[in-house]
Amino acid sequence: MGRFSEKVALITGAGSGIGKATALALAREGAQLAIVDIDRDSCDETLKLVKDHSPYSVSFVCDVSKEDEQNTLYLETLKHFEGRLDIAVNNAGIEGAVSKTADYPLAEWNRVLDVNLTGIFIGMKHQIKAMLINGGGSIVNMSSVLGMVAVENFPAYVATKHAIIGLTKAAAVEYAANNIRINAVCPATIETPLVMDRGFRAGQDKAVYDKLVSLHPVGRLGKPEEIASMITWLCSDDSSFVTGAAMIVDGGYTAI
Ligand SMILES: NC(=O)c1ccc[n+]([C@@H]2O[C@H](COP(=O)([O-])OP(=O)(O)OC[C@H]3O[C@@H](n4cnc5c(N)ncnc54)[C@H](O)[C@@H]3O)[C@@H](O)[C@H]2O)c1
Question: Which fold has domain 8-188+224-255?
Fold first, then answer.
């Protein structure tokens, strides 16, 4: 018996990095999962990993920026779990183009907003409606330390991560009395494909990697499991008085 036995949790972007670590952490503590990702292979791989702990889990391929795909996702998820949804982790996100604001392509701006921000907005509409019927729940939205401060060359990413905190607070105050807690998580730099292979490409350039490390007083980058641990705390009753918060998990990044 874990903290999430008999709970149903949906996680977007669960095929890789932080989402995958969160799926494993929730499954180990008894949750049954809807594993959601745009990439079929990684989605299925995460499902395989959690099945031992979490036999009723299921995976869905869905692009969170597409309203029709999300409509189908929630129809199928709620059918599979007979209307239950206790936990939602809106984690899917992309880094977008690497360019200063004046040169940033409008199409790329729209793509990053569609995935990172509108994807969460559409998802929360479904999640809140299901949780109102179920009598409550916990929603965790993935922001970033770049929802609090900025770096150069990622204007759309920085803008969406700031906006996610605003959306989280807006919905948290609306549904606090309905026993639905809604919080955001703000990690600093975590060793995932988003940072190592794309975005900063820190895995391909030692100087970039070392520069990123130097921004974290702990002297290293974070691990996906260290963010999963904050997310699972927010999903659990251990955080029962926490809502509308933006929880920083950053190895001291924003303290200097
Ligand atoms: N890695 C970091 O340093 C860091 C720091 C702060 C916040 N974050 C945020 O954490 C979240 C997860 O990032 P990660 O580092 O684990 O990245 P990742 O690239 O390893 O994983 C992201 C996952 O999201 C999926 N995805 C992308 N677009 C999607 C879409 N339209 N619909 C559904 N799924 C989609 C990808 O296929 C991938 O499996 C993102 O929102 C990211 O912005 C990451």
Answer: Rossmann fold (3.40.50)
